[in-house]
Amino acid sequence: MKEKIIAICLTVLSVSGWAQPAGNLSIQEILTTARANLQRPPVAMDIETITSALDPNGLKPPKILQKELVQYRIDGRRIDIVTDRFAPDKSGQLISDDFSTRRFFNGTVAFFSQNSAGFQTFTLQSPESVQMDATFVPAHGNSLDGYFSHNNRDGHWTVVLDKEINRVVLSDKNEMIEGISCLVLKADTSCGNYTLWLDPQEKYCLRKAHIIMDSNDRVWGKLLKESSIPLQCYGPDNRRYFQSMEVILSVVKTETVDGKTIPVEGLYAEHWTFNDGSRMDNQYQIRRRNIVFNPDFSALGAFEMNMPDGTVFQEALGGGNYKKYTWSQGKLIPVDKK
Predict the structure, then answer these.
(1) What is the pLDDT of residue 57?
(2) What SS3 class is residue 298?
(3) For residues 68 and 85, is the Cβ–Cβ distance under 8 A?
(4) d(CA 62, CA 83)
């Protein structure tokens, strides 16, 4: 009789969620497994991101600001990302606004180009800068994997939590997210207060995230209160300073591609408040499509410097000064000052 009572008690504990869902796994092992799952082969994919302004009171539907269509090509260190932008016309239909960008590194030359209304500029950048933009710009889709834009100087969420692992707590109860029983990690770090919902059946794939930052948390590599955005006709220094920030990743959907679970869709929202009491609330609806591992990059024309001879490049030297180059016979030739 005593054995039956013990068995019944264990069953109740397991159903209620009090039994450790991760077995004997440590927090360190969870972070290591989640980070290892980010290692993927060379990939080509298309990404659609719709950016909308949110009503802070939740009374109005999201107002679409723009759509970006991204051709995303990554091969080891090489990067080739082309983005075309669309904006709503008066009827609300999304049409091309004749604006595109390219972030590029072929192992030798790294640049950012911008084409606006037929006028194109090429600016040389460091490979590290191109890599950071490729990883952390929301429209590039990697927020679905947990590369949040405010962590662009600190890295993936697993790296942030690993550095302050003594502040990380694994909840003793699973929580259901979109019908999936998830582990819950919580951490109050120098980069914000994190709550993360992880899918234990898919190598701790991120199913939801909620991050809250105040003015003394580190965002974009410095304290949030030290960050600002320029505004016309605003205050003596034409700046508006951040006061708080909130990030929410939700409604994440996954697919299996060549045996790997890939987040392919989700909502990524950023909410900011400022020192004057105002706020901004933006949402990115992200969809990854046509994912191909180990593609034929030559057939796609990726990583090729396909601009004509005579194309002018500029390199920022600081203080508003630039050094100019021309592209000629496969090389960048410095332009001598006359």
Answers:
(1) 82
(2) helix
(3) yes
(4) 23
Domain boundaries, the chain: 21-300
In angstroms, the CA 124 to CA 337 distance is 18
Backbone torsions φ then ψ of 135, nearest 5 degrees: -90, -40
* DSSP β-ladder status, 312-318 and 119-124: parallel
pLDDT in tens, 292-322: 999 999 999 999 998 999 999 999 888 888 8
By the 10 Å C-beta count (0-12 exposed, 13-18 middle, 19+ buried), 41 is classed as middle
Contact 207, 199 (CB under 8 A): yes
CA distance 275 to 243: 6
Which distant-in-sequence residues (6+ apart) come within 8 Å of 301 by Cβ?
Answer: none
Phi, psi of 73 (to 5 degrees): -130, 120
| Residue 153 in tokens | 């100087």
The topology under which CATH files domain 21-300 is: outer membrane lipoprotein receptor (LolB), chain A (2.50.20)
- CB neighbourhood size of 77 (10 A): 12
Q: Looking only at Cα atoms, what is the longest distance across the chain?
A: 99
Give me the percent of the chain exceeding a pLDDT of 90. 73
State both tokens at 26: 């440590």
* Sequence-ordered strand ranges (E) for the chain: 43-53, 63-75, 78-88, 94-105, 110-116, 119-124, 168-170, 175-177, 180-189, 192-199, 205-213, 218-219, 222-223, 228-230, 239-257, 260-274, 279-293, 312-318, 321-328, 331-334
| 3-class SS of residue 244 | strand
